[in-house]
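Shapes recur. Our protein:

. . .
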Amino acid sequence: MLFLLFLVSCSEEKIGEQAEYGTVTGKVVFADTFEPMENVKILSSPTTSTVFTDAEGKFIISNIKVGEYSFQAQKEGYVSKFEAVTVNANGTSEVVFELKKVTTDNKPPTVPVLVSPTDNSTNQPVSLDLTWTVTDPDDDELTFKVTLRNDSNSEVKTFEAIKEKKLSLTNLIYGAKYYWQVEVNDGVNTPILSAISAFSTVTFPTSRYLFVKEVNGNNVIFTADDAGKQYQLTSSDKNSWRPRRNNQVKRIAFIATNGSKNDIYMMNFDGTGVKKITNSVSVAGFNSDYVGYSWNTSGSALIYPNFDKLYKINNDGSGLSKVFQTPNGKFISECDWSADESKIVIKVNDANGYNVEIYVINMSGTIIANVISGQAGAFSGLNFSVTGQKLVYSWDITGYESANYRQLDSRIFEYSFATGTSAQILLDKTVGTNDLDVRYSPNEAEVIFVNTSNDGISEKKIYKALVKNTNENIRTLLFSGTTMPDWK
């Protein structure tokens, strides 16, 4: 009997002893998203205070006697969760609960029905909305995932965490067939997949004009059809300029920045299939805005300058060879290859763009004709006629030369190899403007060119006009805010 009394007294606190306490903090989150869960009831065994989580999913219970506890998180519609916690004297114990929805009697959403574009529809625009319908018997919050692929390349795109029954797409590939599928998730049941639907985009429109516009501070290449509708071909995030089209190989060449260098690239008529052509020898001259290159007629090769040297390269980037080097160290700025591929006209100048010479070489690099020499002022734009018997270019007739290469009165001239003389065409130019970047039209009855104020900061505009050396030229405005035209 005395022994029993001794055991009982040892199991209880001794008179005069002080109890020790600790603190429990915690957080409750949704198990699927880990976002905080508000107003969750927190209780324990042995019993302590009962509290509820705040807007951040957090709770705190203070003055808990040290010992082992089981804490529970409860919220209607969710599976209760238990976590064991040890409370230490004068310490803080932490616990995290992840609550899942109660799935009993929760029904999954219906199979998504793909609405638009309709299955196997054709001639769809390259910017469109994918839409679908779906319902959920329990009105659960739904999220969607869309998978998209096409028959033009191996790219598979996924768009996740979509909240509405619509996905807006832009810059799709022209003339491609797309396949798409929607997955719906109610956060409780296994995600449900729709059937696969398909649509085809419109083929790329016939367009013969090329030009450059400034977008977000970068030069960007555009094309346009005869109605004037414009289509962007290169990215707004990179400088790309001086486009040249070749109808034989159905490719567009252009210059683009590549780190500290400028290289020649190629792309399809719709802007896809971009490939860098130049490698060990880049495009270079006195000023990148005034450097030009040329295709051969067949599209098998290009010629381009690198300071005082002219190079030839195949359209796949192979076969690099030096065609010509200036005898006086002057820089080659522009060139054009005759239609019969027998001769090349080049413009050379000093490091400031002046002291210009324009002459013709054969494919062996021998100078066979002189066009311009000993004339002051800026020259630009070299383009052979299809017969190779004429050449158009522009020249600042004031002979003005400055450090910023400003031109005051640039006019368009046509040189005849038969007579060895040049004559101004388009005599109706507005005073105080420059005609620049001239090229023959496809039928050579007209020229396409840029006109802009000689202040160097005004808007540039592309015009076309009949080739006449009279005051009766009719200038037709084609595109505003544009430069570096090409017309094939």
